[in-house]
Write a structure and sequence with these properties.
Elements (H helix, E strand, L loop, with lengths): L3 E8 L3 E7 L5 E8 L2 H9 L4 E7 L4 H8 L5 E5 L12 H13 L14 H29 L16 H5 L5 H32 L4 H5 L7 H11 L8 H7 L4 E4 L4 E4 L2 E4 L5 E5 L5 H16 L3 H9 L4 H22 L15
Parallel strand pairs: 1-4, 4-5
Antiparallel strand pairs: 1-2, 2-3, 6-9, 7-8
Length: about 350
């Protein structure tokens, strides 16, 4: 009979501490190896039986997952924030603790997609990082003018043809030099953005799901590629609610003293649930995708629905949020079914 083994790995930049438990939780092997592909695989190949491995989500988690997944029975990348605390905090006890939690099904896994989407993931990460860098440079540029009492609403301050006019508003050469360098940085990032977008969309065309995603209102080729590259697969989300949470579109509510004693019986109190806004732990790129899609849909194909919600007394920002939640729900449903968007099949309701 094949022996089942549970392997916990405490991964660091230079070294990885490994603990191996058998089916009854006894430590049968320990090792400290370099955090390099050959050293880790050599250790795993030296272990006989059915191997189940776990390690924490971190900088090297995606690389390590793809490295060892073909050589073991299962890999669980766990959420370090959901690991139960222990008394002894050190590398060896940490590795053993991970292995024991894996054996007793006490870990909260973090999804890592199929290896076939890995190139797209890399292109999406590059694109998203460049877009964020561009936003930072734009903020610095506007801050330079605002700090001197110069109004700079809109996007005119970024336009190449207007830069001489903006430079004339600055009082000294040092400020002009700083603004000029920020514009150069912005121009270079624009070139990198175009390159990254071209690579990302070219890779996205290889995936059939891209055609489904870009058929949804407000989601074009670029947004479809970002969704596919980040989420990987729709089947990691059982319903739309966890998908909303992942995208930062889930409404947070709180209530205290939910139950009370009435006439000697325990019952629910009549206190109202307090809405505390949207969840704070989410993927920022996906939130930007669906908020952007909602803005486009509100001006186009769903303008009548958006206007109706505003006419009913809903604030415009909340109406756009309702559209974003709706688009996210449709995205998940169609992606799972493998169907293109069809306006005739849509029963439009306000997203609760």
């Amino acid at each position: 009979m094949t022996e089942i083994k549970y392997i916990g790995m405490d991964v660091h930049m230079a070294m990885t501490v490994i603990a191996v438990l058998n089916g009854v939780g006894k430590v049968i092997a320990e090792a400290i190896v370099e955090t390099k592909a050959r050293a880790i695989l050599d250790f795993l190949k030296g272990q006989r039986g059915t191997l189940n491995v776990t390690f924490e989500e971190g900088t090297q988690a995606a690389w390590l997952y793809d490295l060892i997944r073909p050589h073991v029975a299962s890999v669980v990348v766990c959420d370090p924030r959901k690991i139960p605390p222990q008394n002894n905090k050190a590398d060896k006890p940490d590795a053993k603790h991970l292995a024991e939690l894996l054996r007793t099904h006490g870990l909260k896994p973090v999804y890592h997609g199929e290896h076939s989407t890995q190139p797209l993931k890399e292109f999406v990460r590059s694109y998203v990082a460049i877009m964020r860098d561009g936003s930072r440079v734009k903020n610095r540029l506007k801050a330079l003018f605002r700090a001197r009492g110069i109004a700079c609403q809109g996007s005119g301050v970024y336009a190449e043809e207007e830069r001489e006019q903006w430079l004339s508003k600055l009082s000294n050469g040092a400020a002009c030099a700083r603004a000029s360098r920020l514009w150069k940085e912005l121009d270079f990032l624009a070139e990198l953005r175009d390159e990254a977008e071209e690579d990302m969309t070219a890779e996205a065309r290889k995936h059939p799901a891209t055609k489904i995603l870009k058929s949804i209102p407000g989601i074009g080729f670029v947004r479809a590629a970002v969704i596919l590259g980040i989420a990987g697969t729709p089947h990691r989300f059982r319903t739309r609610k966890p998908f909303w949470t992942y995208c930062g579109l889930a409404v947070r509510s709180e209530i205290s003293a939910e139950y009370e004693l009435v006439d000697g019986r325990i019952g629910k109190s009549k206190k109202r649930v307090l809405v505390r806004g949207l969840n704070r732990n989410y993927n920022r790129a996906l939130k930007e995708v669906f908020k952007g899609a909602a803005t486009i849909a509100a001006k186009g194909i769903w303008k009548s629905q958006f206007d109706a919600m505003v006419a009913d007394g809903m604030e415009e920002s909340l109406a756009r949020l309702a559209l974003a939640r709706k688009i996210a729900a449709i995205t998940l449903a169609l992606w799972k079914k493998g169907e293109l968007y069809d306006e005739k099949k849509l029963n439009f309701v306000h997203a609760a």
